[in-house]
Amino acid sequence: MNLGWKQVDFNAKRLRVENTKSSKIRFININGPLLEELTRLRGRASGSPCVFPNQGTGKPYVCLHRSFVTACKKAGVQGLRFHDLRHTFASRLDAKGVGIETIRDLLGHSSVVLTQRYTHSNNQLKQQAVDLLGPESGAFPSQNGGNLLRPCDTAKKEPSNPLFEIPLKCSESEN
């Protein structure tokens, strides 16, 4: 809400955020659509140093709660909290394959553990993940027609890996 035009670097496509929860200055990268919107807003700026000035006072807004609730009602969205948007951001980045460290940096967290609370993979993504290991994926080509569900039938010793030095045995009770 306090973002000022001096904090927007249009060339580097990033924002400089100074008043953070951790009191550390952060830089937030911006994507194309946001860059376009900021460019549009800059063209309409009425001399205010604020990117999002209160139209009545020209100063930053103090609270967005009422505006957020109104926007949700107009969109027909119920039960959404403003903070939920951070969870959505993190989960969508995770679903697109962005690494947890990058998501941590983007959210401004000091720990990956905290970031993991924000990423929520859905059941479809979990199914896609396990399907990557299916026979049609080619991830584990069967050798000599062996059954991939019984790796002890095709296990080979690999001298370079001590884990494979131990012979695997399947008893008839495991069939």
Give an overview in words.
It is elongated and about 65 Å long. Strands 1-2-3 form a three-stranded antiparallel sheet, with no helix packed on it. With 175 residues, the chain is mainly alpha-helical. Helices cover 34% and strands 6% of the residues. The chain contains six helices and three strands; from the N terminus they run βββαααααα. The protein has two domains: 5-59, no CATH class; 63-133, no CATH class. The protein starts with 7 loop residues before the first strand and ends in a 44-residue tail after the last helix. The mean pLDDT is 80.
Rough outline:
elongated
SS summary, helix count: 6
Q: Sheet with the most strands?
A: 3 strands, antiparallel
Alpha-carbon distance between the two ends: 63 Å
Q: Count the strands?
A: 3
Strand order of the largest sheet: 1-2-3
Strand content: 5-15%
Low-confidence blocks of residues: none
Rg (CA only): 26 Å
Elements, N to C (H/E): EEEHHHHHH
Quickly count the domains.
Answer: 2
Give the averaged pLDDT, no decimals: 80
Structural class by SSE content? mainly alpha
Helix content estimate: 25-40%
Secondary-structure map:
Blueprint (H helix, E strand, L loop, with lengths): L7 E2 L4 E4 L8 E4 L2 H13 L20 H11 L8 H12 L4 H8 L4 H7 L4 H9 L44
Antiparallel strand pairs: 1-2, 2-3
Helix pairs in contact: 4-5
